[in-house]
Amino acid sequence: MRVLSVLAILAAFWLLPAIAAAGEADVEAVEAVRQSDGTWRFNVTVRHADEGWSHYADRWEVVAADGRVLGTRVLLHPHEAEQPFTRSLGGVVIPDSEKTVTVRAHDSVHRLGGAEVAVDLER
Fold it and tell me: For 71-83, how does the pLDDT look when each residue is reduced to its tens digit (9 = 90+)?
């Protein structure tokens, strides 16, 4: 039993660099545009060294100051050949009391943790 535990630990250390190679998903740029109906459209540029289906940027989120997720753009596939890439999300409802939101990206291995961008909605 102890040999199996040691082997499992060694395998984890051997695989860790391969799993972590792509790093976290980073938000590089955000354009926020208020629409005529009062909702917001976000054009977000994300960079992540996608490695196929096992490790890729799988979504980004618009987050209020109190941590509430106001909008989520799900990314349905890896973007190995398109880095960085920009995707949009419209119809995001943001209360007028929110003056700033944060846009953060998520990947299938590290989850959250890469570079985020704070967006001043009063500009």
Answer: 999 998 887 777 8
Whether this prediction's pTM lies above 0.85 is answered by no
In sequence order, which ranges of the chain are alpha helices (DSSP H)?
Answer: 2-20
Is the Cα dihedral 79, 83, 84, 87 positive or negative? negative
In residues, how long is the chain?
A: 123
> What residue segments make up the domains of the chain, in order of their start?
23-120
As its CATH architecture, domain 23-120 has Sandwich (2.60)
Q: In whole angstroms, what is the distance from residue 25 CA to residue 103 CA?
A: 12
In sequence order, the 6+-apart residues with CB closer than 8 A to the CB of 35 are: 41, 90
| Spatial contact of 44 and 86, defined as CB atoms under 8 Å apart | yes
Going by C-alpha positions, the residue among 90, 93, 43 that lies closest to residue 70 is: 93
Nearest of 46, 111, 110, 32 to residue 82 by alpha carbon:
46
In angstroms, the CA 99 to CA 30 distance is 15
Distances (CA, A) of 106 to 39, 49, 95, 121: 23, 13, 24, 22
